């Protein structure tokens, strides 16, 4: 408590003694703020500049009301307090003082306010610079394009996160600061190590002064697999380890790279297919010619005539497919025309009926004709052939394969191929349209059937979706836009 008390009405002697030994500025103020005594002037001023003047002349306007209240409290008998007071030097510079304000008591009466002021300008400027630096850091962090987290290694907790980190993990700031970081990752990482082992290794590198950069898979409630690029750096901290992580979501980039690789594979395949199709077309020409000559030699009622006609039809169909492959490989447009979906289904089913096997019952459930789509007949048949043969393979013992057409209310038609076979897991279903992915044993599948179906559906302006459940079966639904009706 700063209190100067004397019984002598003349306080000059006690004032001079006190002022001579104190290293700080010592000021006596009247209740209206007039400077009664001062031992030394603030920076940039002399005692003559200040003595007898009102202290409010030297105060920053914003601080005057606070000083008035402090003086009023002292003269009202209040306790001494410490205040931070900004002053303006004569050159316009801002100076800061820590001012201890207390009463001067003479004969039991408060006659003045005593102020001991210490220059804290350097300290204040340092605090302001630190505050500005922190504010700039916060702005940089919050507006950074990547997610940024600060990890307390010893506590195994985040101590700071920015807004993009909240978006990446689909959690609020409060939730992120209370979650265990390792819980935001799947059990294993792309390099084959467990997430715990890999995280410990990368954090160790950061604490040793390195800046490891690596790929990492995070997870959130809405996105179970978020592929990221992470960079770690150690932050200065006394007594514990802090590591800052910069996280960039590269899921879309990774997907584009994967699609580019698939495109390159398909491009190579297209070039190979063009050459194979050319040779195959020559072979099919021989088969077709041989079937035609065989039919000419057979009596109309011959028991093998049906088989010969099937050979000719299959070779004709094969020749049509090879022409499509050649057209694809050479970049030619498909031949589009008005098609009745039911007619295409009837023709394809009759062609494949002998290939389905005795254990598979092939059922048609077609809505009445009268709708037309615009497409390439051979390509639509190719879509059906792929789906029907896949359905046949899914029925390992006795089962049913169903083909249906349904008119939808939005001027489109649905073509459905379903089976009651083995079905698929979610992991398999997610990859079925990926080129070269197959669950069939070596030599039984190329992994190109469903990717081709998907590409052909898209080329016709349609969409394809699949629902499946292990042990229950699978349904493919293709939706084509209608272009006309015949009714």
Total domain count:
4
The CATH homologous superfamily of the largest domain is termed: Histidine kinase-like ATPase, C-terminal domain
**From the structure provided, what is the oligomeric state, counting identical versus distinct chains?**
single chain
Q: What is the correct CATH architecture of the largest domain?
A: 2-Layer Sandwich
Q: Span between N and C termini?
A: 102 Å
Main beta-sheet strand count, sense and barrel state: 6 strands, mixed
What name does the CATH topology of the largest domain carry? Answer: Heat Shock Protein 90
Q: Which descriptor suits the 3D outline?
A: rod-shaped
Q: What is the percentage of strand-forming residues?
A: 25-35%
Taking pLDDT < 50 over at least 5 consecutive residues as the criterion, the unreliable ranges are none
Number of helices: 13
How many E-type strands? 19
Mean pLDDT, rounded to whole units? 82
The class by helix and strand makeup works out as: alpha+beta
- Which range best describes the helical content: under 10%, 10-25%, 25-40%, 40-55%, 55-70% or over 70%? 25-40%
CA-based gyration radius: 43 Å
Q: Could you give a short description of this structure?
A:
The protein has 487 residues and is an alpha+beta fold.
How would you describe this structure to a colleague?
With about 475 residues, the chain is an alpha+beta fold. The chain folds into four domains: about 120 residues, PAS domain (Beta-Lactamase); about 110 residues, PAS domain (Beta-Lactamase); about 80 residues, Helix Hairpins (Orthogonal Bundle), CATH 1.10.287; about 150 residues, Histidine kinase-like ATPase, C-terminal domain (Heat Shock Protein 90), CATH 3.30.565.10. Helix content is about 40%, strand content about 25%. Strands 1, 2, 3, 4, 5 and 6 form a six-stranded mixed beta sheet that branches. A five-stranded antiparallel beta sheet has the order 8-7-11-10-9. Strand 5 and strand 6 form a beta hairpin. Helix 10 packs across helix 11. The protein starts with a strand and ends with a strand. The mean pLDDT is about 80.
